[in-house]
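Something for you to look into today, if you have time. I want to see for myself how the chain folds. Leave the record below and I will have a look.
***
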Amino acid sequence: MKTCRAWGDPHYETFDGKIYDFQGDCRYVLAEDDCGTGSSSFKIIVENVPCGAGGAACTKAIKFSIQGFDIQMVGGAETSVQNSGGAEIDPRTIFQIRSVGIYEVIETTLGITLQWNRGTSIYLSLDPSYSGKVCGLCGNFNGQGTDDFTTRQGDLEFAANVFGHSWRVDQCVMPLGPVNPCDINPERKKWAEFSCGIIKQGIFSQCHSAVSGARKVLHRLCDYVLACERGGNCDCLCTAIAAYTKQCSENGVSIKWRSDGTCGLQCEEGKVYTECGSSCENSCYVEGDKDFGCQETCIEGCFCPPGQVEYEGRCISREVCPCSVDGVLVAGGDVFIRDCQTCFCLPGGKYDCFGSTCTAMEEEDNCQCEEGFLSCGSCNGCFSIEERCDGTVQCANGRDEEFCNCQFNNDIKKDSSEQRKMLYQRGFSLSKYGDNGSFV
């Protein structure tokens, strides 16, 4: 996969490696695949706003439209998903959203991965199948950085501000071309050069051979962003260094650079900091979910220690993970009925079921019961699905009470929202599609 980067005030590196500065204060198309074709599978819009003491621009919000769904990511707020296109499919079959380290990560089955630290850094990675088929601030991904400044109108531009402005979504004023802030604030130049000089020496020297070309560019950008912040905002320094060390990590060189306290991170909920954690972090329901589309890369931040997994923001042993059953969380050790089978939630978040499914029961008998009813077998009548394992025999052959190896009684609650209902024992909590609740 190829990655487009945006960081700092904001600085951009296209898929094809072209680096430029564009301080537009508006909403812009970062990347899309509707480039004059009239059809689109995805579009990513970024909203840049002034931030920091010196008025630097950073990304406040991202709108990721994909296959009829709009994913809204806003700094300081929960990520939301809207079905804007009337899609009739489950969005979880297209994408998943996870918090990994210091990033919010969106992974898709379409070869698109987005990472955002909810402020100053965005990383968009595309599968090679998108080569030459995309456009926007990230360029056209055709392997030639010389034509990355192709405007929305199809013209090749040479000025970054004109190119960037052509990809605006709203009406806004074209920003001025980049001006070296060291020329405007000469008193800040020495301090900026000294602060960013750490990239040239010490622990960073081990990365020079891996990212030799990027080192000079990133050092220049570090000077730029620091000089722009008249008060010497540490966020600018940390953003510039983080952008460099991320490239180091992606090239196999991990640097422990936050230990001096200037850019330290405080971890909570039993997590520990690592500069190169897995982007496919394990959780109760995701074991490095590479099958979904997770691309294994380094991500810095706070992670669960070895032997533990994340569950609802905290670290626990995998053995105590609840089971995820059709979007419902079932506590470990609980017994439930799913599709007429008796199921057990086992340690580690897995569950086993036995007995015949509803469909199999009907097919075995070659008899049809009305919707909401199941066959007693051999065409000897039907019983309501709600009477399955209720402790009272409805069928002469006792089929409605088979494989009910737990004490089912009137305390059992039924999820009436599903055509083929699941039964639960009293007292455990559930969480379905983001809505929390409990059975009592």
